[in-house]
Design brief:
41% strand, 4-stranded mixed sheet, 2,3-Dihydroxybiphenyl 1,2-Dioxygenase, domain 1, globular
């Protein structure tokens, strides 16, 4: 089984991205951060590496996609409760993110979506544990 996950995302302005995600309540691991990238802590053993585009393309060997026009991935995170979903999504919008989808309320599951400052798509959600079978 996988013991940790790192999502690598290209960013145009690292300082602006750090400020944005700090406003959302995320923290960063200075051990894996410098002027070209930073390690954002998403949760236990879950991280997003925010990398300046030049460094990202050095790893990917491909050009960075035009995220305002195309999508390759939606990074989804499940939170403890519905209120946390609204809190994080509202913070994102207040910090400059754009809502890209209406909230989805299915009773046992609730999610909201936003596009960050670099055009990356994020989804935050909650599932009622009483209605979800363990994996």
């Amino acid at each position: 089984m996988i013991n940790s996950i790192f999502v690598n995302l290209p960013v145009k302005d690292l300082k602006r991205s750090i400020a944005f995600f700090t406003e959302l309540g995320f923290t960063f691991n200075p051990q894996f951060s410098n002027e070209e990238g930073t390690c954002m802590i998403l949760g236990k053993d879950m991280y997003a590496m925010l990398l300046v585009e030049k460094l990202f393309t050095g790893f990917s060997k491909r050009p960075v996609g035009d995220t305002p026009k195309t999508a390759e991935v939606i990074t989804s995170m499940m939170l403890e409760n519905r209120a946390d979903v609204d809190l994080l999504a509202d913070k994102a919008l207040e910090a400059g993110a754009v809502n890209y989808s209406d909230p989805a309320d299915m009773g046992f599951m609730y999610n909201r979506s936003f596009q960050d400052l670099d055009g990356h798509l994020w989804e935050v959600g909650w599932m009622d544990p009483a209605h979800v079978e363990p994996f």
